[in-house]
Amino acid sequence: MNSENFSLSEKIVSTSYVRQGSQARRGHEQLIRHLLEQGKCPEDGWSESTVELFLSELAVMDSNNFLGNCGVGEREGRVASSLVARRHYRLIHGIGRSGDIAAVQPKAAGSSLLNKLTNSVVLDILKLSGVRSVASCFVVPMATGMSLTLCFLTLRHRRPKARYIVWPRIDQKSCFKAMITAGFEPVVVENVLEGDELRTDLEAVERKIEELGAENILCVHSTTSCFAPRVPDRLEELAAACAKHDIPHIVNNAYGVQSSKCMHLIQQGARVGRIDAFVQSLDKNFMVPVGGAIVAGFDESFIQEISQMYPGRASASPSLDVLITLLTLGASGYKKLLSERKEIYLFLAQELKSLASAHGERLLHTPHNPISLAMSLDGLQAESDKAVTQLGSMLFTRQVSGARVIPLRKEQTVSGHRFLGFMSHSEAYPCPYLNAASAVGITREDVTLCIKRLDKCLKTLKKEGNAAKSSSPAVPPCEGDTTGETELK
């Protein structure tokens, strides 16, 4: 409805009523105008009606929704199912063109505008979350692992002789396979144990650089968000080393946007040294479906180079999902979620500490990890190795998702590389443990239920262990053994 149509409506319905409707419409349009002018996340979230009006306006700008369109090409935004069309708000053309994921499509002005606005709004959120000097970013319809691969493949053109990626160990398969898929050889640097924490071995990184030669190293691949007792890498020191040796630096910031500490590390790393790009997941940080990531950095030309490396057009679904979410939350709503996450982290830590104490265990001291916590399982290990792994199964069947139970000395081969102590980020971590995390969206009710069910599981395992010990038959003494102590051979 434009002003002319509203004027015509006054001939049909009372003028005062039409003007009231017109004013309401202008309220929606003003919010949209501010978004187009500023390209930033609105401070206050939009209503669903405003979001849907905006998406409808974008959709009618795409050629597949033109009333008189006649398509004779192989890709004309045709959709067989009306349910699928509605699911995507009739934004069917996706984003980018065959040679550049960031390019504007002549047949899809609405989808192209969606793509540009999403990247702009997400950039604003990255700045609000702590990386204030970030220069550019784009949403890519791949999860974190493949997005890291895209970064490594882009660096290949800048460093054609490089074969190696120096990687402080973190036991997570996708980031390791990202390097393998890109065709490089990961050089695993074991972490050092400091108290309960596993931290970056900076001396070992330096030795690897000297041993391999800086010109043969594609990049250093570091990590922020991770499972305790692993803590974020020493990003400032790594960034300084990369600047010193002129080696690119890619940061896996998978779920670090929700942590002010992780974002501060990236900001400081870029300030004192070199960080070429950092990659983060959409679903873990913004509570949207799996399938998208953000590639961001401090050099706009390099981020553009990465986006141009993506072959072909791409799905607009991740961009659409995160834009809807951020427009609905607003900057204030997202900041509130981050604040609540921090509060619940402290609550989770206190509850885990109390539970651990009640069962003769302890909360591992990992102050440098702002998201994940770990509780020792020495008591269960004393019962049997089976009891430790059984706890994980019991929690899962009792609908406690996300808790990770880490046994001792597990071995795993990933893409031909053998890891000792896999999942513990170390070849010989001193105790088995259980992980729990306070991630964005968690509630106090989640924590309370988890602690209650974990307590029951631990009591059940202890009871079963005691019953097994009491039911074990005593070994009869051999003839002539007056003490009852017999050496079993």
UniProtKB/TrEMBL annotation:
InterPro entries: PyrdxlP-dep_Trfase (IPR015424), PyrdxlP-dep_Trfase_major (IPR015421), Sec-tRNA_Se_transferase (IPR019872), SepSecS/SepCysS (IPR008829). The record marks E74 as: May act as a substrate filter by repelling compounds with a negatively charged alpha-carboxylate. The keyword Coiled coil does not apply. It catalyses: O-phospho-L-seryl-tRNA(Sec) + selenophosphate + H2O = L-selenocysteinyl-tRNA(Sec) + 2 phosphate. It is an enzyme of class 2 (transferase). Its EC number is 2.9.1.2. The keyword Translocase does not apply. TRNA binds at R271, R398, K463. This is O-phosphoseryl-tRNA(Sec) selenium transferase. It comes from Zoarces viviparus.
